[in-house]
Design goal:
It is built from 12 helices and no strands. By secondary structure, the chain is an all-alpha fold. It has one domain. It is globular and about 60 Å long. The two termini are 18 Å apart.
Amino acid sequence: MKTFPALEQMRAHIPDIRTRRGSLLVGLYVLTGLPLTTLVFIFLDARWPEWTLAAQVAIIAAGFVWMARFFWQRQAFKQKWGELAYRNAVGLYAVPGLTMILAAVAHIAYLPGPDIPFNWWTPGLVTLGWYFSYVGFVLWLRAIFTFGFDNLAMLYVYFPDEGRMVDSAIYGVLRHPVYAGVIRLGLGFGLLNGNWFALAFGLFMPLGLTIWLRLVEEKELLERFGAGYADYRKRVPAFWPRPRDWGRFWRFLISGK
């Protein structure tokens, strides 16, 4: 059975998952946030449907700000908790922030709003919706297995010496294939939902993720890799492959290589 690369590194720094009982408790903690945030969305949609887009923006923004504290509080956590700094930061900031973001992306599929008028273009929008949803899901899944769970969980932020360089052709095509998959999923959900609010938020997602990368994640990468990463950022787009790289992009989707 295929497993995430470098999972042992995660176990080394999160003592809770070294036992079966601890892994179960951590899993329950991780999985609880998504349905709870989803229930919040359902309640807000039913109670104040006219404010649903504002609630969507507010919750996903709160998720990113909360996740950013995983980076911003690093030195304070290291001084206070030592080797447990990463474990505590993941539990306090990364997991809750990520669940808010994922719930908000899923909410695009059922977000209420004014319908896009049914017309000759409707079958084309639906087809595009299924296309982006399928490609986004496959890209997201392929990237997660390629990237490795340690990198996905940002272990390198607290333990830079243990960071791994991932050797995959996709990183010559896209800088952030996981986010690229999420963007396509959001756009696909918006098109399939068929209302202006959902579509508007799906179209907004690349801008929101670009702001996150510039202010938080890529700032960290520039500090680690300097001019090398700055040059890489100029050469390789973040989310959408250049036309000359479409063949490599589809090869990754089909084969994972």
